[in-house]
Each structure stands twice: as structure tokens, then as C-alpha cells.
Amino acid sequence: MKMKKGQEYIGIVEKVDFPNKGVVLVDGERAIVKNAIPGQKVRFLINKVRKGKCEGRLLEVMEKSPLETIEVPCVHFGECGGCTYQTIPYEEQLKMKSAQVKKMLDDVIPYEYDYQGIKGSPVEYGYRNKMEFSFGDEFKDGPLALGMHKRGSFYDIVTTNNCKIVDEDYNKILTSVLTLCKEKNLTFLHKMTHVGYLRHLLVRRAAKTGEILVNLITTSQTFEGEERFLTEFKDMLLSLELNGKIVGVLHTINDSLADIVKADSMDILYGQDFFYEELLGLKFKISTFSFFQTNSLGAEVLYSVGRDYVGETKDKLIFDLYSGTGTIAQLLAPVAKKVIGVEIIEEAVEAAKVNAALNNLDNCEFIAGDVLKMLDTIEERPDFIVLDPPRDGIHPKALDKIIDYGVDQMVYISCKPTSLARDLEVLQERGYKVVKACTVDMFPWTVHVETVVLLSKVNTHNS
User: Fold this and answer.
1) Which residue, 349, 387, 209, is CA-closest to 283?
2) How far apart are CA 128 and CA 124, in angstroms?
3) What does the alpha-carbon distance between residue 123 and residue 255 come to, in Å, rounded to a whole number?
């Protein structure tokens, strides 16, 4: 039997490859069906056939998987595109993610190495410290909605006012903002016509300090009474009874055609445009748009593993490449000779400099620019390199330059195992060997996972 595009089939999900690719077997033929769970019996529609590979869209789960043993805690599950594994106990999610990563590593590492399993998030619910909610409608010309995109939809929005992976404060803020916007009959930006006012609501809340930033992102299309509305928006937020404390209310204008959160301009309606978070005894000042790990308590686990893998740093010059707001650099600085961080996002670099000063660290240097270009401008040579690249991994030419330093060891922290596996192939071809690896789950109930790898240069006798 050859599967055909446009046809429906029924089969059992054999396994799930990272991140969410269910492999379904039908009469000896395999199809990839996203968002399925091992052991489910599913009905799906083939929507792509290419080079003998079939991809299908999940239409219905006809029989549950034996792994699905818990009641779904979230009313939005299934509709909302955020979580995938809410029917599976957390321990089983961890086993599944660990197996996915180990398989990917084993496929590219042809020798024995120490795979140290997976570490779970210290909290399973309410762990996210940042949410970008979108304004829209749940169906065409329906009432105003505010929340997450519907699974598989570019347009429809689910009002996620009972989300379980954020603190209750987020749900209170979302509900009150949506109510006010409905009262005022405000319109959202329609993607086709580019007409409308509301775009996103960005909420960030520190796990340790409880400080909250609320940022309303709109177009520059004004309306009569906009100023009065913004005042009411601010006053309404400040009157809410929350677990945390709002330290800033912001209004950002964004006229970009792309569906992304960015600022053409920003006004502070109340307080400040930053908040403080604490990680492993260090203090971090985080601005509205600067990158910070979205699970603060999980980040402590991730960076503890990273720090353990780096090991003895006395008298070493360390390069922290793709350094973000300088978290890793600052964790290593107290025990290193010097740390140089390189990061392309200027705002993150400015934040890193402020944070280093905040933590009284004078042996950190942060450089704004593309790693590929910046490595040519740094005269010093590193003794150790830490890599924490974005999802797509490291640019091949940048990876060449990194390998050319010939450091004895490096640590690679990855948020996407597929990119990590690709980069590891190159590193191994060029004389590095994987010593050990550990997976850290920062995103319970979702398909995502982080991985930390220690690499050692072959023929060096360092521990």
C-alpha cells in the first residue's frame, strides 16, 4: 500500500521522535504525525508526500495511549497549542524526553560516553516567568480573545485565562485586561487588512522576587479616548490583588508586519521598564524585551549542571559565546580569571554589563555583535569555551573559528537537540569527543528540553 496525499488513515503511534513527531505504522508503511503520543490509536490525513516520506495531520485520537493515565489539569488543553503532554504523568514525560535525546546523541556519537539521564524542573506548574499573549478572536468575526494561538492555527486565539504553567497572577491580569478591552470595544490588528489597535500583552514575573512587568503592545492606529483608556488600563492593573507586585506598566507601539513582539517606541505608564530576578545567589536586572530563561527555578538546575561540567576554572580565561544577559558568565566569573561574553542582541549585552556591576563582578567583559565576526576582534585566547547558542545552533563558519582555538574542553548548552546533534558531528570530526551529557527539563507538559554536553579534545590529558 502506498499512502496518498489527501487520504485518511488509522494507525498506532509506535514512538515519538524529538520534538513531537509521532511515527505511525499503517500496513508496513510509516507516516509522521505531529502531537501524537506513543501507543495512541489515531486517525490522520496525509498532507505531504515527499521522497517517499509521508506527513499527516492528526484528526482524532481514537484510543488513548497506555501512558495517558492522568486527568488533564488544564481546561485549555487540546485547543491551546502550548502543552502537548498533559495526559501523561510528569515522570513518564521525563523518561520520554530523556530517551528522545539519548537516541539523537547515540546516532551521532559512535563510542561510549557518560549519559547522565534527565533532571526534572523543581516545579511542574506555574513555572513560566514570561508570557506573550496575543489578541484576536476564537473564530472569524467572533468576540475579542486574548491568549495563545489555537493548535495548528495562524489566526484563531484561545483565551487562556486558566493556564496552569503560569502563576495565578497571569490569569488575573489577562482576565481583567480582556474585560476592559471588551468594554471599550477595542479592535485587534487583523493580519490581512492591517487594521486594528491591540496586538499583544507581554507579562513577566520573577519567581524569586515576585516583581511583575505588564506591557500592552498596540499599533500606532489611535482612537478617540486612547489616553483615557491607557490611564484606566494602568489603574485597573494596580488595583488587582496579586501574589506578586507590579513594578512597571508599559505601552509599546509596534507597527511591524510580522507577528512578533518588538518595540517601535515604548512609554512607561507606571513605575519602571525592568524587574529583578535572582538565580543561584546572583541578582539580575531584566528589561522588558531582554532574553532570560523562562523557567527561573529550572534555570538554576540547568546552570548548576553547566557549572559542574566546566569544573576547575581558577586562572582560566573563559569565553561565554551567545551569552544573553550574561547569566553563565556571572556564575563562572567568581572562580575564573576572566570571562568574555559575546551576544548579538545589544539590549541583552547592556543588561549583562549592568548585572555584572550589580553582582560586584569586575572580571566580566561583554561584547555586542555576531559571534562569527566578533571572534576576529578579540585578541585574547580562551582556555575554556561555553556555548549556549539559539535554537538553530551555531553558524558553520563560527563553529570552525571556535574549534580553531583548540581549547582542551568546552561545554555546549542546547535548547534544541537536533541542532546539537548536527554541531556535535562537526566537533567530533575536528577532534573533540563527548565526555558526558545530561538533559534538563525546563518546560514540563511541553515537547521542549535542554541538554548539556561536555566535550574534550582528543589527546589531551586533562580531567
Assistant:
1) 209
2) 10
3) 37
User: Which pTM value belongs to this model?
Assistant: 0.92
Tens-binned pLDDT, residue by residue, of the chain (463 aa): 688 899 999 999 999 999 899 999 888 889 999 999 999 999 999 999 988 789 999 999 999 999 999 999 899 998 998 899 999 999 999 999 999 999 999 999 999 999 999 999 999 999 999 999 999 998 888 999 999 999 888 889 999 999 999 999 999 999 999 999 999 999 999 988 999 999 999 999 999 999 999 999 999 999 999 999 999 999 999 999 999 999 999 999 999 988 888 889 999 999 999 999 999 999 999 988 888 899 999 999 999 999 999 998 889 999 999 998 899 999 999 989 999 999 998 888 999 999 999 999 999 999 999 999 999 999 999 999 999 999 899 999 999 999 999 999 999 999 999 999 999 999 999 999 999 999 999 999 999 999 999 999 997 554 4
Q: For the CA atoms of 223, 229, 234, 236, what is the dihedral angle to 10 degrees?
A: -150
Burial of 157 (0-12, 13-18, 19+ CB in 10 A): buried
Nearby residues of 31 by Cβ (< 8 Å), 6 or more positions away = 3, 9, 11, 23, 24, 44, 46, 54, 55, 56
Whether 438 is a known active-site residue: answer no
The answer to whether 275 and 209 have CB atoms below 8 angstroms apart is yes
Q: How far apart (Å, rounded) are the C-alpha atoms in residues 99 and 185?
A: 49
Rg of the chain taking only CA atoms, in angstroms: 24
- CA pair distance 393, 426, nearest whole angstrom: 12
Q: Say if CB 172 and CB 203 are below 8 A apart.
A: no
Nearest by Cα to 236 from 144, 173, 167: 173
Q: Which residues pair with 252 in a beta bridge?
A: 217, 266
Q: How many helices (H) and strands (E) does the chain have?
A: 9, 22
Residue type, 55: E
Q: 321, 338, 337, 320: which is closest to 329 by C-alpha?
A: 320
Burial of 51 (C-beta count, 10 Å sphere; 0-12/13-18/19+): exposed
C-alpha to C-alpha distance for 52 and 296, rounded to whole angstroms: 43
* Set 54, 163, 181, 415: catalytic member: 415
